[in-house]
Amino acid sequence: MTNQKNGYLVPMIIIGTLFFIFGFVTWVNGTLIPYLKIACQLESDFQAYLVTTAFFIAYGVMGIPSSYVLNLTGYKKGMAVGLLVMAVGAATFIPAAQARNYNLFLTGLFIIGTGLALLQTASNPYVTILGPIESAAQRISIMGVCNKVAGILAGIIFGYIALKDADHLTASLKAMDAVAKEAQLNELASRVIVPYIIITAVLVVLAVAVILSSLPEINEEDSEEGTDTSASSKTSIFQFPHLFLGALALFVYVGVEVMAADTIISYGKYLNIEMSTARYFSQATLGFMLLGYITGIFTIPRILSQELAMKICAISGAIFTVLAVLTSGATSVLFIALLGLSNSLIWPAVWPLALEGLGKFTKLASGLLVMAIAGGAILPLIYGSLSDKLHNAQTAYWIMLPCYLYILYFGTKGHLVGRKK
After folding, report:
1. How far apart are CA 271 and CA 282, in angstroms?
2. What whole-number distance in Å separates Cα of residue 174 and Cα of residue 160?
3. If both were cysteines, with which of 184, 220, 348, 399 could 362 make a disulfide (CB 3.0 to 4.6 Å apart)?
4. Would you tell me the crossing angle of helices 2-27 and 29-39 to the nearest 10 degrees?
5. Which residues of the chain register pLDDT less than 70?
């Protein structure tokens, strides 16, 4: 057993590094939304939340194609390709900032999301089937710690670079003539050039490092031994209804997760909280998620089962949503941030529950689950549209309640549909 755990260590370190990269480029979106709203002079919340749409819609478009790429390349080469695609997307931010072109920024985000779709398709099932299925949520929780630490750092770094003087700048722009305003906005846009040059270089170096690493290939068919449903007797992925219910759970989960982390800064501004304070709100949400992941590492499966952890998170998410809408001011912001705690152990639990028994269909199934990450593209955009139409960013948060209730259903009964108990 000790040798087996040691065999997991190197792959876990490599995958943990990749999850750190996921977190850095994903959770910086919470800062990019208010930043680009100022730099590109966007007029509505709907336009601003196209940041999340451009990024996460790539998962919906590229999820299944990514599974076919992995069938051709294997896990290791597929991860390297994903990193190189992300590098192209990061490099796109350079001309986008120079031209202060919002559509080009969105294009860069879509390309980054495309690379991440390939990486996620490979890395999540890799962690799931690297060891015993009953402790998969524990391993994914460890990856979540890497992800959220990176997200917290990304928000702090980019918040300082891009939004350090946002309150003063926003007020000053109103008094400037056209020429001075254009110059100031160009200076603001240029602030992300150097950071994205660094990100591009790091991604290329990591791609080379993954290729040269000792990361082993894994035979998914070996992972179906001992499961309750033998994939060897199945002929189609459509014979696993619990997988599709899990994909829907991931869709709504990613939607509420992104809303909790990426809308909270703008929500603070809506409540007339100064940007110098509100720019740290995303880090509060991610901090609570980090706390939840650490809890999962020490409690799953010894104290809590994956199913029970998901139920607790879903119930608390529903409660915090209601309290966020019914309270006011800083208290309401706190409950949005606390959703990070509720969201923490849903992702680690859905993946192993949805993939259990898939065997030879694991890569294709993983592609389907990665497509569900497009919930982060759709639901925040709906939230932004509701916020604009209702002229009330707080009331629009009601759309999260049915999402948490469905997640509760999947954790209770949905993951058992079509499978022997």
Report:
1. 15
2. 22
3. 220
4. 10
5. 1-8, 124-125, 128-131, 133-135, 137, 216-232, 420-421
pTM: 0.81
What is the DSSP annotation of 141-208?
Answer: HHHHHHHHHHHHHHHHHHHHHHHTTHHHHHHHHHHS-HHHHHHHHHHHHHTTHHHHHHHHHHHHHHHH
pLDDT in tens, 176-231: 888 999 999 999 999 999 999 999 999 999 999 888 887 766 655 544 444 444 55
Q: What's the CA gap between 161 and 341, in Å, rounded?
A: 27
Contact by Cβ (8 Å): 122, 78: yes
Residue written as token pair 């290939």 = 217
Query: Per residue in 220-240, is it b (16+ CB within 10 Å) or e — as a string?
Result: beebbeebebebeebeeeeeb
Helices and strands counted in the chain (H then E): 19, 0
N residues, the chain: 421
Question: What are the residue ranges spanned by the domains of the chain?
Answer: 2-416
Q: Taking the C-alpha atoms of 280, 283, 288 and 292 in order, what is their torsion angle to the nearest 10 degrees? A: 180
CATH code for the part of the protein at 2-416: 1.20.1250.20
Burial 30-62 (b: 16+ CB within 10 A, else e): bbbbbbbbbbbebeebbbbbbbbbbbbbbbbbb
Query: Rounded distance, CA 220 to CA 197, Å?
Result: 37
